[in-house]
Amino acid sequence: MDNVQTSVEANDQEWKQRCNKRMEKLKITRIPIRDVPLQKGLEQEKLHEEKHIMNFELYEAVENGNVDMFVDVVEQVFTNTELTLFAIFDQVTPSGDSLLHVAADLGREQIAELIAYHFPGLLFGTNIKRDTALHAAARFKNSNVIKIILSQVEGLTKLTNANGDTPLHVAVCSRHLSAITELLLADSHVVHYLNNSGKSPLYLAAITGDVDILDLLLQTPFPSNKPLPQCHGNSPLHAAIFERNSGIC
Fold it and tell me: Which GO terms describe its cellular component (predicted)?
């Protein structure tokens, strides 16, 4: 068993060293300045104007999930488009998702870790719904990606989307216990954060009727010097009664 664990750890370090080295090389590679005809120059200018729209090959590479193949495609796009590496990773889908969002959506752990390590600013990037990659991982129940993202930087658990939802709100609505556990380990205080509808993750857990999730959230008591947050006059307990969740009550 120990040998298997050692082998897994060795393989984990191997891909990181290999891919990180290739990414660092791209970062310091200069884009050659070339004399081009006027028409060609106009075409390149248009390309740079459209640089924020994600290259489809990059999307497919994330979808495939092979981290080495992903770096292969990044190198190809870097060479063929003459965009900087930072401009490549600044690209988004029509819905505003970055490559990190896509990796989080699909649960591509190694690719998500590689992107987050080299471009930590993307951890705070949002799409048109103001979801961060952490929101995306919570929505699509990718607890390992959640753990990877949380290991990179602090403060992400309190970021809210257009609905005022924290990643914990999203995880509770998705009813994914392991994702909720990871988020609570990082920041238990968000249990009582209210979204734009005045609902906390605890309140949402009560109305969904998931006893295991509610029990987990109740391990974080609300500060004694503050009243229990309510939604439309109802506390989480009232919500459970209203929804007739007898398993909770």
Answer: plasma membrane
